[in-house]
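Summary for the lay section of the report: proteins are chains of building blocks that fold into shapes. Here we show the chain for DUF402 domain-containing protein and then a coded description of the shape we predicted for it.
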Amino acid sequence: MTGTAGRGGGEAQGVRWRRGEQVLWRYRDHAPGGLPGAVHICRPVTVVEDSDELLAVWMAPGTECVKPVLADGTPVHEEPLATRYTAPRTTVRSRWFGTGVLKLARPADPWSVWLFWEPGWRFKSWYVNLEEPRSRWSGGVDSVDHFLDISVYPDRTWTWRDEDEFAQAQRSGLMGPEQARRVQEAGRAALEDVKAWGSPFSDGWEDWRPDPAWTVPVLPGDWDRTPAHMSS
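The coded shape description reads as follows.
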């Protein structure tokens, strides 16, 4: 999983990926004080489009990913909210058995937009995942999730998601008041796109389909490696 070096030098600078290339879409955990920690989510994906305006990737059904679990293997969502972000964790490899997910990200946006389908390609919804603008390296992109999310439906209605986890993350010291304010502002900015029915909601991505010749990417052994250089 390597990118094509473009202008400049270094591992990340000028990297552009061709359609069909396979890269990693990763999230780093929250360290105390809101700083990024180790990689705890890693999803191999196939590049659909990579331009100055948009990175679009496809996560195929059956993809082997990495996800966080509690130290005893219990799924994170089963831990009571009060201790969900303080209980010891580890990571495990796990297959993505749902329908595939198309992820869209504009370079500077502190969010990405995911498209979900029901079986049979019946479009379900968009999901606005509030996150750090992605840092690009030769093998993919890294971000930090901001807990708060928005679901957007085909009838153009929307709803906030995970507000309880967003509040608990602040109580647990993973996000300070200033960062929380910025995340809320980012959510409101994303909603302006929704209310105006701007890009990417009006771009017809719900009718997109993956190339049948694409193979499911393989999770590499060094999925958690630290890149030498990164760029936004």
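Put simply, here is one thing we learned. Confidence is low (pLDDT under 50) at residues 2-11.
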